[in-house]
Amino acid sequence: MRQRPVLCTLGVAVVAVLLTSAAVAQDQVPPPDSTSVSADSVVLSEGVPQRDAMDILKGWFGKSVDSQVSLGPPIGLQWALLPTINFNPVSGFSVGAAISGAGMRGRDGVHYSTVSLSGSASTTGQIQFLLRGDVFTPGENYLLKADLRYLDTERSTWGLGRASHLQGEFPMEFKLGRIYASLYRRMTGPLYLGAGFHYDEFSNIVDERAVEGEVTPYSTYNGGLTPSKSTAVGVSLNVLADTRDNLVNPSKGTLSSLVMRDYYDEMGSDDHWQELWVESRAYTKLGATRRNVLAIWMYGWMTFGPAPYLNLPSNGWDTYGRASRGYLAGRVRGTNQLYLEGEYRRTLSADGLWGMVMFANTLLTTDPVNGIYQQGDPALGVGLRIKFNKRSNTNLTLDYGVGRVDQRGFFLGMTEVF
User: Per CATH, which fold does 7-27+66-414 belong to?
Assistant: First the structure.
């Protein structure tokens, strides 16, 4: 029988984010990162011109190569067409393209609006299409956040609770259609309150070992059944405060977020249940320049009531799928999870081309029987950074992480993990 999470943990998490949000609301949001201006004038604080991967290609081929293909005039959002490349141990290599826009929509603005439409296919036959955006009105009194996605994939699950050698691997196939949209209203400073609509539909679910007659975690969770579809439809209340100086590669500032979702069967959900996401990120420069940065990421992901199995908190299923480097995505699943990660970021060359990171993380998951948080699933790792675009300060990231129960792997992506 499912147990509700420890109420004191929930209370502490909620209070912590609300207090952090109130604190940052008293400060002015820092100005946008100066590294987002023109191509060749981008410099570090010590006055060294910046270089990126496109400058290297220019040296090889003798002509200018740009990582961005401009699709619009230099006003408002600046649109670009970007190639994408990714790798993780679950989906393998994936390649695709993204149309993205970024910029301040108001003359006196301090927040960047971003929109990205992307599609990719992987070497394992998985397909995904994503539309994500954080768009401020010109006066920055309103913020629209959107997350729309289509995913045709095959993922394994290992049951509920902390990772263990005793758990078996259970391959599953499914398609996911998601529509998340939230509208925020600024209350004071960087503090916003909002409401949202959330729709998830998992369809064409195939639990491969259950089809062969075995008892699986999916069938056990669903009382012996293996439904081929699950739907969650609901609304949310949201709190957000963001003072980061750069969304793709922050060097200072904080992010605090709280999202409480309520899914109703009257709206089309299979059941009535709730979900809480509470998150905090902090970035601190170590020294006078941005070449040494300490980054901290914490979140709590909790469910109340009969959440669908595939909607349960799981590593690698955060919004951008970047948590728990060192583990296969979906390796650790449970009704409630707490996550903590710290990362030291070092720019190795004064021109900003090369960098490295060292990171450590741990994920705590509740026991499926008694609802008490078990010992964590920690991981350690290192990573290499290559400046892909000096104007947006975007890095190409290659990380190697090692976790428990023989978990390890390389993770390749664009932009920092958090």
Answer: Porin (2.40.160)
The CA distance from 44 to 58, in Å, is: 21
Neighbouring residues of 418: CB distance < 8 A, sequence distance ≥ 6: 281, 295, 297, 322, 341, 343
Q: How far apart are CA 101 and CA 116, in angstroms?
A: 6
User: Among candidates 186, 188, 180, 225, which has minimal Cα distance to 205?
Assistant: 225
Tokens in use for 412?
A: 């390749």
HSE toward the beta carbon, residue 339, CA cutoff 13 A: 31
CB 152, CB 175: distance < 8 Å: yes
Return d(Cα 413, Cα 418) in angstroms, integer: 12
Domain ranges (residues) in the chain: 7-27+66-414
Residue pair 360/342 in contact by the 8 Å Cβ criterion:
yes
Per-residue pLDDT of the chain (418 residues), as tens digits, is 444 444 444 444 444 444 444 444 334 333 334 333 333 345 554 678 888 887 887 777 766 555 544 444 444 666 767 777 777 677 778 888 888 777 777 666 677 788 888 898 988 888 999 998 888 888 889 999 999 999 999 989 999 999 999 999 999 999 999 999 999 999 999 999 999 999 999 999 999 999 999 999 999 999 999 999 999 999 999 999 999 988 778 999 999 999 999 999 999 999 999 999 999 999 999 987 778 999 999 999 999 999 999 999 999 999 888 899 999 989 999 999 999 999 999 999 988 899 999 999 999 999 999 999 999 999 999 999 999 878 778 888 999 999 999 999 888 887 899 9
Distance of CA 324 to the CA centre of its chain: 11
Q: What is the SS3 assignment for 85?
A: strand
Q: How far is CA 92 from CA 31, 84, 142, 288, in A?
A: 38, 14, 39, 39
Phi-psi region of 406 (alpha: psi -120 to 50; beta: other; left: phi over 0): left
Neighbouring residues of 178: CB distance < 8 A, sequence distance ≥ 6: 147, 148, 149, 150, 151, 199, 200, 201
For residue 85, the cross-strand partners are 95
Residue 160 contacts by C-beta under 8 Å, 6 or more apart in sequence? 217, 221, 312, 333, 334, 335, 365, 368
Neighbours of 224 (CB within 10 A): 9
pTM of the model: 0.84
- Residue 330, CA distances (Å) to 21, 162, 240, 319, 322 in order: 30, 12, 27, 13, 12
Query: Strand, helix or coil at 7?
Result: helix
